[in-house]
Amino acid sequence: MLGVGAYTLWGLVPIYFHAVAHITPLVVVCHRIVWSSLFLALIVCWRREWRPIWGVASVRRNVLFLLMAALLIAINWLVFIYAITTRQVLQASLGYFINPLLSVALGLIFLGERLRPGQWLALFFAGLGVLNLAVRAGAFPWIALSLATSFALYGLVRKTVSVHSLHGLLIETLFLLPPALIWLLLGPSNRLLQDNLGLLSLSGLVTAVPLLMFGAAVRCLRLSTLGFLQYVGPSIQFFLALVFFREPLDLVRFVSFSLCWLGIVTYLTESVLTHRAPVVADRPE
Question: Chain-wide mean pLDDT for the chain?
Fold first, then answer.
């Protein structure tokens, strides 16, 4: 339930950012950083977990990698909010459909992981989907690729640092907090205390709650189960784009999504068969 809840909230989050679409994306991101930092700091105070955070922050390697992760997640947040405010939710959804397959590719390149034939075929289908959208849609799908790349790289960087998800996210938002406050206080035509302050302050909850639910779920579930659940979010976003945001689904986009879905089905099928194979082989006569 925690895993389903986390991915469902991530799928519904475009509705919230649509409510603040009249505010420039950069200002919304800055508020998201400020209120997330405050909300996460309150949780850490309540749980009395500052000591392990100081331990993580005292290691130079951890600081460098978490700073890199902070920049990547800030880019991801900015592009995602831009996609919502400009009514390009379909492309954002496509990005998060591609993301898991791109993570597999990064594991191959940077972590020396080996792909099975089914995984290579899944990457091929996803690559065809992106290529089709880039060539036939008349515009490069930079939103989808930016979201997929930034979040996949974020996961790769975070994988290199052994830190609790709550502690890591707090450190990342604290890195981003000074420039966010400077922009809100001194930036052109921006101010921290806006008319929509109450609505913007909810961005801390919108950011932290699903992440905390996910952090609790990941400690209890198998990775194969999470592999299935991670497509709940972009599937809900896809539905919202068609029904709530009334975005058109032309033939080119439909073909690209179909190729990505085919890649996802191929990848998940291969993963399930591979996971079950040892159990069948070792079954006693």
Answer: 82
